[in-house]
Fold this protein.
Amino acid sequence: MKKNIIILTLSLLIKISFLMGVSSGNEMSGDCPQKRNTVTAPSDYISKVNPLRNEPRHIKKGKVLSHMKAKPLACKHCHGLSGNGQGSMSHSMNPKPRNFTCTETMNKISDGQLFWIIKKGSKGTAMPAYSYLSDKKIWQIILYIRSLS
């Protein structure tokens, strides 16, 4: 009986410390460079350029969307608070979510590609479509994502 209580207590302490690490943003670093697992966007998307200026107000709004307001799921749950692809739900995903902190990887992805993936989702990955978001909100998220690498 005493042995079971000790094992249960240790198990609970491990779970609590894991949850505290995830919720405090102490995430491990994601793969860098990261292999591409997404289909290339159609040409009318791939050539799109972000029309918004790279200004703190747009980046802040993109961060709020990414961390709290995006539905069905806020971006942070998969991509992580720091954008490194190590969010609380990422561990069971294959392929892993994009690591936005990897400059080498992010430099190879156009704004139009990011726009298309956010708007339409990404087949073969866990990335859902956020088609209800206005174009402006998607561009704000992209400015925030770009600020991470």
